[in-house]
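User: I'm writing a tutorial on reading structure tokens. Could you give me a worked example: one chain, its sequence, then its tokens, then a sentence or two explaining what the tokens reveal?
Assistant: Sure. Here is the example chain.
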Amino acid sequence: MNRKKLKILLSLFAFNSIYLYFFSSSDHHLFIHHKLLPGNHKASPANPKTPPGKHPHFPITPRAKPWPILPSYLPWSLNPTVALRSCEGYFGNGFTRRIGLRRSSVERESGISGGGGWFRCWHSGTLQSSVCEGGRVRMTPERIQMSIGGERLENVIGRKEEEELPEFEAGAFEVDAGERFGDQRKLVDEEFLNRFVPQGAISRHTMRGLLDSIRLVGSSEFKCDQAPLEETWKALFSSLKYAKNFSGSVCFRHAVLVPLGYETALFKGLSENINCHGAFAHDLWQNPDDLKTARLSEFGEMIRAAFGFPVGRHRVLKPASGHNILFVRREDYVAHPRHGGKVESRLSNEQEVFDSLKNWASNYLECKINLVDGLFAHMPMKEQVRAIQDASVIIGAHGAGLTHIISARPKTVILEIISSLYRRPHFALISQWKGLEYHAINLDGSYADPRVVIDQLNSIVKSLGC
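And here are its predicted structure tokens:
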């Protein structure tokens, strides 16, 4: 499992994440920050055909990705009084304060003067960030400076992170301000940015830079060169194209700009205590609790549904034949270029541990144990998701593959083997927020004693009644 998939899946489960996506005139999607878009096309329970946040002037065409009604789905609240630092504030729709910057088409159709496009932001007091959206937005890729991507790894060893992040020049994005609009001017000022998109601890805040680049232009200047707009992408969404792949300006009927990954609960959980615990959605529907959340489990259901697997709280919690213990394997890989390009190993004797577990499982007499070899780097994504959802126990070294636990069934037990060089709480936090039982084996280095691992598994399978 490589670093690229870690970026994909860590970002996936966090609804308020690093994404920037666009609805074009053909309802295709575009990514600016090299990331995929969030799954906010789920239909509303009140109206299965109307996605939350849909603007009536920009209907979603049949070509957009259809989403099933998930049995556990909790509605997104538009209540502006979502409790600060509550679980819903962190993981649900905490973006409840609306800041209008340009009038919407509905207002214009109601007789309010204006014309052209529209723009507004929704602010979260919990995450201290904003989601923004606009209509009739134009992007000029030539005004966005960023690495081209796709280079050979050995050619970019030592590249700094700031060299990979996009830098937006004035007018990189523009909003149609109508026929009566004269000279260009900025959409937002410094006061707005400091209040609703604060710099925080981020060295380069690309969302803030993008908003700062937006200019208002008259309709006569709003000309477009283009209007048209990977396995997991297509499973979750309709289609995509990266900003760097365009030449010439591109116009979008509906653009949604979503905060950086550094502003999500997962990142904030590294430095602050987010006292949230996973729960069943149907329980929270009846008894709301600010200290419980079902949002991560719902997102796991979305991933399973995207690949055609059954979802919902009525699924059998135990495999029909014994228990599957999934060993999520890793392969040594060249680290990200800015880490110096060295080969990294999180578990130096992984094969020894796996062989010992295989021998243990084949001789376990209390019940049938199926040890699954999770070589995810060589498995299609659908088979990876299948292996996760069929597992009673998931074991693996700290790394990308364990991000899949977002799709694990209720009652799945997680056992993480943690090298002394990678003592990071990502998967402990995901397990807590999903309501999964979590255990860790902390190593002095990167070598794991197979006997210690087997003893821990013995204890776990006995707790499963086996």
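What the tokens reveal: Residues 3-263 form one domain. The first helix runs from residue 3 to 13.
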